[in-house]
Amino acid sequence: MLKLYNTLTRRLDEFTPMSHDRVTLYTCGPTVYDYLHVGNWAAYVYWDTLVRVLKFNGYEVERVMNITDVGHLVSDADDGEDKLEKGARRDGKTAWEIAEHYTEAFVRGMHEFGLVPPEHMVRATDFIPQQLALVRTLKEKGYTYQTSDGIYFDTSKFPRYADFAQLDLAAQKAGARVEANSEKRQPWDFALWKFTEPGKRRDMEWETPEDLLDSHGRETPGAASGVASAIMGFPGWHLECSTMAMELLGQTIDIHTGGIDHIPVHHTNEIAQSEAASGVQFARYWLHCNHLKIDGGKISKSLGNGYTMTHLKERGFTAMDLRMFILQSHYQSEGNFSFDILTAARNRLKNWRDTACLRHQVHDRLDDDTKRNDAPQYLSPQAAIGAMREALNNNLNTPEALSIIDESFSSISQRPLGAIYRAGLVELLQAIDDMLGLQLLDSTPDISDDAKQLLVERRRARDDKNWARSDELRDQLKAMGIIVRDTAHDTIWTYA
Ligand code: AMP
Ligand code: ZN
């Protein structure tokens, strides 16, 4: 039984999808104005683990992940610049070019992290007509009003607005900034569609359809001269997620994921506008990952600690090292990034790969069925798979799953090679790769026939007590990236 912590109910809920074998899932994707930092990657690794665990439980998953390429403003209060337009000025490019560049970088990164590609990866700018249609539905149902700078959602018409995030709106009102958008009816009302500032052009802007505009809201430019020109505009950030989720997955989806920063504004607004439009529940399970911090503080480019994969690679780390680091913490706990902990994670992954290499060095024989069953003191691969799945089914407890693997691997690697059940080891490695995406099998191919030949020669040299020759062969193998180690029973190789 799979249990997930549901922000909607604030408890651990048993997961049962709407359809018995299929799960619809929406993940809030990145805003593509810069490279992702380690904290952003943590979010996507956790949701990838969720997808893997759902699949391991036999569900077919249909997932949408959006690419925010327009409308995410620097401030949550619907003012400030669009992050894309700001990034474009920083890089001396257009917002379209910025979006393309950082989307490509994200997709490359997803591949390096081994993230399961979502069935739908969709850009906000590809869903403009659909977003406008949602604004139209909300307008027709009386949920919108127009100000001089856009079309807003009137949260007073949606009485459950504060429930999801347990917002204290009275306190929020008292603390609202005086200079904030004074035309809003409530400080927490949010823009569905913003108008391009009069007299300005944006890289990304679309015509606001006539029927969405109030006659009184704002003067139609050029009206006085008799040649009315269109009012240009762009969608608010929250609108894209509601639109793409409902367009592609239906009005009610099973699971919606995001970061804890999304709870009070972004997801609260998604729920309000989606449910106001559809009249039915938007998402049944809401999962939120906590943030990764550095020395207890925020990760941010301006503080110089927004490490990207480029920074990590410069220091010799791979995406898989970071993936291991991320999985060592539970998605709901506040993670702490340091290069020391990342180094420890890399060592752990190296140890696991060493165990994975053992599968090439053992050969099952006919009596293996007894070998599998006769060792109750070992956590058998089958038992380890079951325990790992149980840990992950308990609200994605990855730290617990990792310690089960540590225990199982240490019992396997302490055995003489002849006492290792190869098929069981391979099954366990496959299950780890399926659920945790650590690519243990792919990263540990068998060594070449030449290397194997050298190992045979070295064994002969040792049998002949020709230690000089044996050391020479060891060095030769080392030059090929293969380390040999002699135990009481066997000679074992691993990758350097
Ligand atoms: P953004 O590109 O800013 O929209 O963020 C992309 C994702 O990263 C969102 O789901 C955020 O919740 C998440 N995120 C941002 N900062 C962190 C962090 N320090 N730790 C974990 N997740 C984060
Ligand atoms: Zn979203």
UniProtKB/TrEMBL annotation:
ATP binds at residue 301. The keyword Magnesium does not apply. A motif ('HIGH' region) lies at residues 30-40. CDD domains: CysRS_core. Residues 15-346 form the tRNA synthetases class I catalytic domain. It catalyses: tRNA(Cys) + L-cysteine + ATP = L-cysteinyl-tRNA(Cys) + AMP + diphosphate. It comes from the Bacteria. Its EC number is 6.1.1.16. InterPro entries: Cys-tRNA-ligase (IPR015803), Cys-tRNA/MSH_ligase (IPR024909), CysS_C (IPR056411), Rossmann-like_a/b/a_fold (IPR014729), tRNA-synt_1_cat_dom (IPR032678), tRNAsynth_Ia_anticodon-bd (IPR009080). The keyword Nucleotide-binding applies. Pfam families: CysS_C (PF23493), tRNA-synt_1e (PF01406). Keywords: Aminoacyl-tRNA synthetase, ATP-binding, Cytoplasm, Ligase, Metal-binding, Nucleotide-binding, Protein biosynthesis, Zinc. Its cofactor is Zn(2+). Monomer. Belongs to the class-I aminoacyl-tRNA synthetase family. This is Cysteine--tRNA ligase. It comes from Candidatus Southlakia epibionticum. The gene is cysS.
